[in-house]
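Final report, Chapter 2: Outcomes

The project's central promise was a pipeline that accepts a single protein chain and returns its three-dimensional structure in a standardized token representation, suitable for archiving and comparison. That pipeline is now operational. To close this chapter, we reproduce one record exactly as it appears in the project archive, with the input sequence first and the structure output second.
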Amino acid sequence: MGKYMKQNLRIFFFGVLLLYAETLYAQTEGAEAPPPDTVETPAVSETPIASETPAASETPAADEARAAPIGEAAFQESAPPEVPPLLIPGAYYDYGDGKKHFFWALGGNLTVNVFLAGMTRFVGHEPWAQFSASSIEKHYYQIRDGELEFDGDIFFTNQIGHVYEGAGYYTAARAAGFGFWPSMGFALFGSATWEFIVETITPSLNDLIVTPTGGAMLGEMMHRLHREISNPLAATLVSPMDSFDRLSGRRPYRGERNMYTVAATAGAGWVTQQHKMGERVLDQDNKITLDLGGKFIYGDPFVQQSTTPYDHFELTLNAGGALPLFYYVRIFSDGYMFSYSLANDAKKQESTGLSLHYDIVSTDFFDFGNQALAWTVKYRRELTGDLSMELKTHLGWTFFGAQNFYRYNAVTDTMDSLRDYSMGPMAKAFFSLIHPRYGRLDIDIRLHQFFITFKKSTYHDVNGIDYFMLADITYLFPLTKNFSLGAADSFAHKSGTYPETRNNGKWNNTLKLFVQYSTTGHAFPRNRENPIPSDLARKKTKR
């Protein structure tokens, strides 16, 4: 990266910090609590489509726009739905008094840094955490001279650890009453404070990008999930900084039921993986693994019309491991920034809009990170009888990707793993066939192309293109209303073409059997004209 680009990036980051500081101060000074009889409920300000109890001040048009509830209530005619243990009205958190509390947000922001700095300095005794006045002065001259860099630190730390750190900054601001964009500004401020004050090494540009952007995506999901949980301990585990805000003494939140799907899986599988350079196999391995996962869908994916970021999102988590020292972590998410409802009747529902994506695949074999902006379409249709189909498509651009680059080392006759940062096109498609008696078939595919854009400073000679493909096929058979038995095959392939070195590729295939428990029953949605649970539908079919 040239000198002038570094200077422009430096000016950009500090300009954004100043702009956010000015905006937040103005919002804090001008924010006033609404009168008691006009305080908006969370369903109005956060999830306009999903509200089950509209505020008194809503217009008839707004009532009509919110007519289609979500979750179990969308399929009930008269009796109230069963309430899952942790997803109940009267839940744990609130906006409080309706104001924006700048100093509570700032205090939560600094609390994250003080805690992490104390752990790394006094417990971990990390050399890079022994900051002093001289290290801060050194950073000043590095910023002035444009000496910031893209680092090659451990992938898990950079793409998951820093994102979770950013989510802490972000949720501290969201809990204090700020919206999506101002809270992202707090995350940028927290990241800059960490890079320029706490760490003694050269500040990392990739951390200043990943921490606030990924932190906002993950943090908004954590914040909303926290509001759905009634148990204080469980809520704190989901979003600690939302719970930290409760120390302010503001009143607790009555809650909303916005969860469309909550599911947990546990199982075991067989992993096969291979690394090839041309026709030569460099590494191959087979393992039996244990696997845990979870899926969270907030808001009805197919009935959405909102301008509030993340009124609907989908989050899938998966982790597994085996001995000796094998692991994998998968995080896939997408959330609407704004959306439109194209169709909503008894036979079909469709939504479309702009979405943000935060995806991670991290294993002991290869790593892949993706932060992208995409145009999304989500479509559901009743086919025949109880059979229905779902199709979700995303087409967009990765604005910041991270992968490991593999360069051939002629001295050791091995492939050295280096870090690159990139941009490029991406596409995702998810197709499902669902029947309440015969089960659910899911076919998912994700395709990414990455043009190596930024590299760790010591490897400026590396250029090329990385490719990543992930395909999943899953079958779920319903045992009861909540429990299902599943089988899945997941195939991942990562390859690179580089003009300066040999091309190479890695692939991983995982076969697994698992049990799924779903608290909402939406693994097998019912026909809206036949709103009966899946276990009762099975009995009716037999008659």
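Archive annotation: The mean pLDDT is 78.
This record, like all others produced under the grant, will remain available to the consortium after the project formally closes.
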